[in-house]
Design goal:
Blueprint: H1 19-28, E1 35-36, H2 49-59, H3 74-84, E2 96-99, H4 101-113, E3 119-124, H5 128-136, E4 140-147, E5 150-151, H6 153-163, E6 167-172, H7 186-199, E7 202-206, H8 222-225, E8 232-237, E9 249-252, H9 258-266, H10 274-285, H11 289-314, E10 319-321, E11 329-334, H12 343-353, E12 355-356, E13 358-359, E14 372-376, H13 382-401
Parallel strand pairs: 1-12, 3-4, 3-6, 6-7, 7-8
Antiparallel strand pairs: 2-9, 4-5, 8-9, 10-11, 11-14, 13-14
Helix pairs in contact: 2-10, 3-10, 4-5, 4-9, 11-13, 12-13
Bound molecules: 4'-deoxy-4'-aminopyridoxal-5'-phosphate (PMP).
4'-deoxy-4'-aminopyridoxal-5'-phosphate (PMP) binds near residues 178 and 208.
Organism: Williamsia sterculiae
Family: Belongs to the class-I pyridoxal-phosphate-dependent aminotransferase family.
Subunit structure: Homodimer.
Length: about 400
């Protein structure tokens, strides 16, 4: 009997995968002293693991082991409302749904707003897990260049006009962007809101890093600029501020969308992992989150400074790098005689040298940025950052010497 053809859905061809996520298992298989600039993981020492262990022992009772409410555990929702009241983006409970990480928030956004063929605007470069989610719902992506002030909104009108389509959604990471580290300016945020309203497009505002500003002044959020705006859909997560393994995040959306979000989530996973929600809730209830965030800001500032210093020390005249005011990432662009280097080729050599990063083309749906790299400074100590940069410099020499 000949092997039957497996009857894949048409959309299966649009499941593009993520080099960022794949690098977790790739690196797990490597020699263990590799310097990890690749994944956007918090530092091990930034995770309050002792406290989590203690809480887990105390909190896990029978209520943790059954199905929970799809919209989220009531205790966590209540504590989140209280917590958000002290931030730039306060939200009432009827706006919130707990999600399985920020990724599920992005999936729900696309499930609600993206039909096959719809035009979705993304930053270039972008967090390609987000653009991959839009692609998985059949979106046409329009990449819009970014500079030190974020998405170049001035170009948007012309670029959209050329597509002869009206955008349905705008996917943006406005603050300490993944992968570039840049923050969208106030003027551009205002202009983007105006354009979204002009087109009737949703702004999918993905902001996992906003609470991790270690220098400079906060820029008003979209919600501050346009309170109760039904076209704003905010995707948030505890992954970067507590621990990504919990897979606990939330969306903040217009109350009219809440039942649809619940229905959409029910078709995915019924509810977010209940014990994990209880652990996060208990952690917040103990009141240490603000202090924890303050310590993360100190830790990550030191690491960002170490990365900038290591670039100046080991790659002078070779690369320019963004200098973010918060978050996890620097974006490096190879220059001068290195401008033609393909960072996908460099990646293989760098891995053998003992340093990992994400090559630029993996952060652009169209495979742009052949000579750029995303570098996560959050996971490594200053000493390891220096070693990693030295290895990167050596890899570049190996590649270009042929
Ligand atoms: N959006 C952005 C911009 C991110 O950087 C990440 C995590 N790397 C996510 C969403 C996904 O977050 P989570 O791990 O909570 O699913």
């Amino acid at each position: 009997m000949t092997a039957p053809t497996i009857p894949l859905a048409g959309r299966a061809k649009d499941l593009v995968g993520s080099m960022i996520d794949s690098s977790t298992s790739l690196l797990a298989a490597q020699r263990h002293d590799i310097v990890r600039f690749a994944m956007g993981s918090p530092a091990d020492e930034a995770v309050p693991s002792d406290e989590f262990r203690q809480i887990a022992g105390e909190i896990l009772d029978s209520s943790s082991f059954t199905y929970g409410a799809t919209e989220g555990e009531p205790r966590l929702l209540g504590l989140l409302v209280d917590y958000l009241a002290g931030t730039a983006d306060p939200a009432s409970e009827d706006r919130l749904v707990i999600t399985t990480g920020g990724m599920q928030g992005l999936d729900l956004a696309c499930k609600l707003f993206v039909d096959p063929g719809d035009l979705v605007i993304v930053e270039s470069p972008t967090y390609t897990n987000g653009s991959a989610t839009a692609l998985s719902y059949g979106a046409q992506l329009l990449e819009v260049p970014t500079d030190e002030n974020g998405m170049d909104v001035d170009l948007l009108g012309d670029l959209v006009a050329r597509t002869r389509q009206t955008p349905k959604a705008i996917y943006t990471i406005p603050t300490f962007q993944n992968p570039s580290g840049v923050t969208m300016s106030l003027e551009r945020r205002k202009a983007l809101l105006e354009m979204a309203h002009h087109w009737g497009a949703v702004i999918i505002d993905d902001d996992p890093y906003g609470l991790l500003r270690f220098t400079g002044e906060d820029v008003p959020t979209f919600r501050t600029l346009s309170p109760d705006d039904p076209l704003l859909f905010s995707v948030r997560t505890f992954s970067k501020i507590l621990a990504p393994g919990w897979r606990v995040g939330w969306v903040d959306a217009d109350p009219s969308l809440r039942q649809l979000l619940i229905n959409g989530k029910q078709a995915m996973d019924t509810c977010t992992n209940v014990p994990n929600q209880h652990i996060v809730a208990e952690y917040i209830s103990r009141g240490g989150l603000d202090e924890h965030l303050a310590s993360l800001r100190v830790l990550y500032r030191e690491r960002k400074d170490a990365m900038i210093a290591a670039v100046a020390k080991h790659l002078p005249g070779v690369a320019s790098v963004t200098d973010p005011e918060g978050g996890f990432f620097c974006w490096m662009t190879l220059e001068n005689e290195y401008a033609d280097v393909d960072t996908r080729e460099l990646f293989e050599i760098a891995l053998a040298e003992g340093v990992a990063f994400i090559p630029g083309p993996a952060l652009s749906p169209g495979g742009r940025f052949h000579n750029a790299l995303r570098l996560c400074f959050a996971s490594s100590t200053p000493e390891r950052i220096d070693i990693g940069m030295q290895r990167l410099a050596r890899s570049l020499e190996t590649l270009t010497r042929g």
